[in-house]
Design brief:
Blueprint (H helix, E strand, L loop, with lengths): L17 H17 L2 H15 L4 E6 L5 H12 L4 E7 L2 H13 L4 E5 L11 E7 L7 H14 E10 L3 H14 L3 H13 L3 H10 L6 E5 L3 E7 L2
Parallel strand pairs: 1-2, 1-4, 2-3, 4-5
Antiparallel strand pairs: 5-7, 6-7
Helix pairs in contact: 2-3, 6-7
Amino acid sequence: MPERLLQAEVMDDPGLDAVEHETALAGLARLNALSRAAAILRPDLEALARSLSRPVRLLDVACGSGDVPISLARRFHARGIEIELTACDISARALGIAQARASAHGVALRTIVLDIIHSQPPERFDVVTCSLFLHHLDPAAAVCTLRHMADAAQSLLLVSDLRRTRVGLGLAWAASRATTRSRVVRVDAIRSVRAAWSMQELRALADQAALAGASVRPAWPQRMLLRWRRS
């Protein structure tokens, strides 16, 4: 792949029409379901949950419509594992959509409006998760975000994102057209892959954020997972 190309995504425009924004979030939720975005996080979360004798306190950062953490909560509830779910995002509109989605699925969700780049979460959690957000950021903002998330994680930090590959670019183009008619999703899917980090770049960001012992591994399809456990 060429060098990383960070462009403003349409979804990040605060002036985006509310209906178009909601349509785009629904399209992204379908993309996440197709790519099994929640499954990337599931094994580490389940291992942590099994080690505790109480519900897992989980914070999902930059949650968007909340489809990933809600999917996790529903899956774990069906298996007898309870999660106390909190989600944060800079967009109050997105959090409102996440709250409605959670209610529709019978999932208890607490929401926090938070700019994770510039502010730490107001409390600590057993695990902090973040999906498909880090590629929106420049290096300095990405490092700040990793530090703030790690500070809030009592046990575990899990960050999943796209990988910048030619295969990933092709998959993003095809999947965005197969799952939604949203022009926002179709534009942003391509921009997201072009702005994504490589695995080596993500490891370097983790080092800069002082996440000693962090690992980065590939995940299907053309994704990667950064895992850091507090020692």
